[in-house]
């Protein structure tokens, strides 16, 4: 069977930790969208692993697959692999030949467009990893796929066309570039054909769809690891303050090459953080300011894994979670970071919005309308700090009463059962209430 993990909010919900815990019963962990804009953290017995491309399950020793829906920076890929090997792990990692390659000019153009937009105050606040420009080239049918790195003649032909195109774009829109090497065909060819050699030597490139379908049919357990979150989804999120891919569960099929039934027959777990964080621009109706935001940010370590930026903080937003539950069809919830809110006198949840004098239970489809929404809050008692290790060891029944009431309220509002609760970053601090994989 399959289990699909999807971020229910704005990324950084703690998906890496949940994937790591559930991977105990998985054979393969699959990434289906995004690239090295993701920052997934796994903590095992105090050792921290930060991954942005390699699927989080490899820390457990599962096979990792990077699906066709991903965009791949080979430099990050090999850096992460080398770092894991230096730490004594030897991941078995495959990558779809259909995944698209992030090139240096994509990163340059990502940042150039962000600074152009900043002049008009409409920057997205991207991670600068070239994600958007790479997906743009994929859709415009001028992208370069991983498999093409293995065929130097093909690679050269592709580069001749696309680099000239990008250079002209950079010249016309951004007065050229201060990184000429990112537009140098010979240099790009040499570097990327070199990555192709290494991919071939390590036998990493596969046709992932048939591989995954075969393994699923043979009874293997597949864990799909979504990156980013539903409100960053290019279709279902807060456009244009989104990423350029679809984190929602439907894309697990398209982005990996199995039929939607394979995903739908399994479990789909929405990962929720007990409050909100956002890196990058765009509205956030429940945003907090001042000391309270600083306190939560510091307790939760809410600084970007990829960019180090301080994250904006807000109260939990149920309209957002209702949309996420619908768009991905969650069958279970994982609620993280309950420990971070401990010690507050009271905590709030936006249970609805008020917009133009009317009550709304879901997020409106335009950024303008969402920015105009006033949260309707429900106040909950806070809970004291606890010995979270012992909570994790003993079970949900020893959660502070108010924390349990908060968690139970969320699950009942969404009408989806809790599958796991996280009370700390370590593997041992995630309580699995109902394991989505069969034994
Ligand atoms: P991009 O994905 O780099 O194009 O960035 C687009 C938006 O998504 C920005 O607001 C980023 O901060 C946000 N974003 C992208 N990846 C992540 C992530 O893994 N966690 C949180 N936010 C992300
Ligand atoms: Mg992250």
SSE layout and pairing:
Layout: E1 2-7, H1 15-22, E2 28-31, E3 40-44, E4 47-51, E5 63-66, E6 71-72, H2 74-86, E7 93-96, E8 100-101, H3 104-119, H4 131-139, H5 152-174, H6 185-201, E9 205-206, H7 208-217, E10 222-225, H8 250-254, H9 260-264, E11 267-273, E12 276-278, H10 290-300, E13 312-314, E14 316-317, H11 318-328, E15 332-336, E16 346-355, E17 358-360, H12 367-371, E18 374-381, H13 388-394, H14 401-414, E19 418-422, E20 430-432
Parallel strand pairs: 1-10, 1-11, 2-5, 2-10, 5-7, 6-8, 7-9, 11-15, 14-16, 15-19
Antiparallel strand pairs: 3-4, 12-13, 16-17, 16-18, 19-20
Helix pairs in contact: 3-4, 3-5, 5-6
Magnesium ion binds at residues 11-12, 38-40, 305.
Short description:
With 439 residues, this protein is α/β, with parallel strands linked by helices. It has helices at residues 15-22, 74-86, 104-119, 131-139, 152-174, 185-201, 208-217, 250-254, 260-264, 290-300, 318-328, 367-371, 388-394, 401-414, and strands at 2-7, 28-31, 40-44, 47-51, 63-66, 71-72, 93-96, 100-101, 205-206, 222-225, 267-273, 276-278, 312-314, 316-317, 332-336, 346-355, 358-360, 374-381, 418-422, 430-432. α3 packs parallel to α5 (152-174) and α5 packs across α6.
Overview of the structural elements:
The chain folds into 2 domains: 323 residues, Alpha-Beta Complex (Adenylosuccinate Synthetase, Chain A, domain 3), CATH 3.90.170.10; 102 residues, Adenylosuccinate Synthetase, subunit A, domain 2 (Orthogonal Bundle). It is of the alpha/beta class and 439 residues long. It has 14 helices and 20 strands. Strands 9-7-5-2-10-1-11-15-19-20 form a 10-stranded mixed sheet, with helices on both faces. Strands 14, 16, 17 and 18 form a 4-stranded mixed sheet that branches. The protein has a two-stranded antiparallel ribbon with strand order 3-4. Strand 16 and strand 17 form a beta hairpin. Helix 3 crosses helix 4 and helix 5 crosses helix 6. The radius of gyration is 22 Å and the shape is globular. Magnesium ion binds next to loops.
């Amino acid at each position: 069977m399959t289990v699909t993990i999807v971020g229910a909010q704005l990324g950084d919900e703690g998906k890496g930790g949940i994937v790591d815990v559930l991977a105990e019963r998985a054979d393969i962990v699959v990434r289906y969208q995004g690239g090295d804009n993701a920052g997934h953290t796994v903590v095992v017995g105090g050792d921290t692993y930060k991954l942005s491309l390699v699927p989080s399950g490899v820390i457990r020793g599962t096979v990792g697959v990077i699906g066709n829906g991903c965009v791949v920076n080979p430099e990050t890929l090999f850096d992460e692999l080398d770092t894991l090997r230096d730490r004594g792990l030897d991941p078995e990692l495959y990558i779809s030949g259909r995944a698209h390659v992030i090139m240096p000019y994509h990163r340059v153009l990502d940042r150039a467009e962000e600074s152009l937009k900043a002049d008009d105050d409409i920057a997205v606040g991207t991670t600068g990893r070239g994600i958007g420009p790479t997906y743009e080239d994929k859709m415009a049918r001028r992208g370069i796929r991983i498999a093409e790195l293995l065929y130097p003649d093909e690679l050269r032909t592709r580069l001749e066309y696309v680099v000239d195109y990008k250079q002209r774009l950079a010249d016309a829109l951004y007065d050229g570039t201060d990184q000429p090497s990112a537009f140098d065909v010979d240099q790009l060819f040499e570097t990327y054909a070199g990555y192709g050699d290494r991919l071939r030597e390590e036998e990493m490139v596969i046709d992932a769809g048939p591989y995954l379908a075969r393994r699923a049919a043979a009874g293997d357990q597949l864990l799909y690891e979504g990156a980013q979150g539903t409100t960053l989804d290019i279709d279902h999120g807060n456009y244009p303050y989104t990423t350029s891919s679809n984190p929602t569960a439907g894309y697990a099929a398209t982005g990996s090459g199995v039929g939607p039934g394979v995903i739908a027959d399994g479990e789909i777990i929405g990962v929720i953080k007990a409050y909100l964080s956002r890196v990058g621009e765009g509205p956030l109706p429940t945003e907090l300011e001042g000391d309270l935001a600083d306190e939560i940010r510091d307790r939760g370590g809410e600084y970007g894994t990829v960019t180090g930026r301080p994250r904006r903080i807000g109260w939990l937003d149920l309209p957002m979670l209702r949309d996420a539950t619908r768009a991905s069809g969650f069958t279970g919830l994982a609620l993280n970071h309950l420990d971070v809110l401990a010690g507050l006198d009271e905590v709030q949840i936006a249970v609805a919005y008020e917009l133009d004098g009317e009550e709304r239970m879901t997020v409106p489809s335009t950024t303008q309308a969402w920015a105009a929404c006033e949260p309707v809050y429900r106040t909950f008692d806070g809970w004291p700090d606890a010995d979270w290790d012992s909570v994790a060891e003993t079970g949900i029944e020893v959660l502070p009463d108010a924390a349990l009431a908060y968690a139970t309220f969320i699950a009942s509002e969404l009408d989806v059962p809790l599958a796991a609760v996280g009370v700390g970053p370590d593997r041992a601090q995630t309580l699995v209430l109902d394991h989505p994989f069969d034994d």
